[in-house]
Amino acid sequence: MTEAAHSEHRDDYGAKLGMWLFLVTEINLFGGLFIAYAYMRNKYPEGFHHGGSQLNATLGVTNTVVLLTSSLTAVLALWAIQQGKAKLSKQLLTATVLFGLVFLVIKTVEWSAKIHHGIYPNSEHLATLPHGEQIFYGLYFTMTGLHGVHVVVGMLVLSVIARMVGQSKITRDQHVVLENGALYWHLVDVVWIFLLPLFYLAA
Amino acid sequence: MSELSANSPATTVEHPSIGTFIRVWLALVALTGVLVLLSHLGPKAAVWGLLVVSPFKAALVFYYFMHLKYEGPLLKATMLVALGTLLIFLTLLFADVAFA
Question: How many CA atoms lie within 13 A of B4 on its CB side?
């Protein structure tokens, strides 16, 4: 066999470009929902104002700090592997996943309170609310729910990556998988940066 | 060949210091505080926060945490095209609503 057949094909830049293109599709996915929000808010300002005042802003802000901190640990995990500190990188990735878990727990508390008050998609109580408020809660559950799914996927991806770091499959010289996983997690953070004011602070 | 592609100039990026990331994180938390403050000042201030502070926070994450600052023009252009497309959609939407 030739030497070329033995060597592993690697295209780190191509892998990263592919990830960015995927992130563009994600931006357009959430962007479409942001546009829907802008249109509906313009049409039903009263309903959105009342709906927003019923949400727990303290939980929303707390979750923002949690996600921002998780983004810091994610980028530091990449920095650590670039410095050859695999153990530290794995610990930082684990911390990122745990922050994601804290985010989901807080989100569950928030959703549970709403469900307890009879506010959930297609509920009888929701149907009695003004039309604008129904649309506000429809967008709230859709956008925060879709974001929550992305948090779960990100946690799974970063858990696998942390395991790969532990098995030395991701190293100082070969870390594009970690870089791409961190990129995904940061985008999840960026989406929440907009969801906080949309629903909790400026509705 | 494979060695060449793995170590192409495009992948050899500058590594920012740990201090840079911590400063960016502190700025992001502080800007979240500004958003909360603006929301207490009234609906107009809150909307200005949404339109100005939030995109600035997102830019910090893109630029530093996602390393866009240290990437080549192709990745930067990819992002600009995506954000530009969204901006065009938003402009068309509000133009449509305003003249409906």
Answer: 2
